[in-house]
Amino acid sequence: MSSHTAQTELSFLGKLVIEGDLICETGLHIGAGKGTLEIGGADNPVVKDAFGRPYVPGSSLRGRLRSLLEQALGLAVPKQLVYVSRRKGQEVRIHASDLANDEICLLFGRAPGRVERVEGDALSQNTITPARLTVYDAALNLDSITAPMRESLDDELTEVKSESAIDRITSQSQARTLERVPAGASFKLRLVLDILCPEDKELIATLMQGLVLLEDDTLGGGGSRGSGRVRFANLKLTWRNSSYYKGGAEVEVAAASDLAGLRSGSADLAQKLEA
Q: Is the confidence at residue 36, as pLDDT, over 50?
């Protein structure tokens, strides 16, 4: 837990901007939720922008970071979860609390209102906690899909992975296909962490923890079947204090080729943010 209290006063101190590349180590599938099938198309297409290019929605990356942090912090248990949706077969449960020092609520925000707990009495949240973390849609780096890669792809920018489900009684096979962005493709990563009080600097370590967890887990669908392994590269942290937005200069806090280097290079991060 952080050192935030109910008496912590918020003001705008600045923004920490994290930029870099999100690289696919294996094929990546983030589904488009398409209700109809095209002739010859994959059963499960990936989400694409208006120009037909795959991208990583900020909501998908943000939601995965939140889920992994909830698990790592021991908050993904019934007594710590509330219902976002109770529609039968489509239940959605996430962590929420009314604690002033709850790192998840501080990072991802909290709205007032009464919500049903998965286990125990309903939770009445009386305060608004602004979300500190913003995760932007990550556009595809087109040059990361090289000419040799394109020669073996099923589409201009994606591949189709064929899978089979086997009936345990009859041994009958049912084929299914999954569209994926191929291994080696990369996306433009951009995250912004608002620092609204001195205590918010503690959230930087929590965010870094989430990024490290993601590298050892998966993003998108089909993770348990080999899809969705990613890593971060060419990373840069830039601090823009309140003076920057009045014409001042930004400060490059750290830069590294990978996430491990960025974490070790940001040990004195709190001191640098005073600039």
A: no
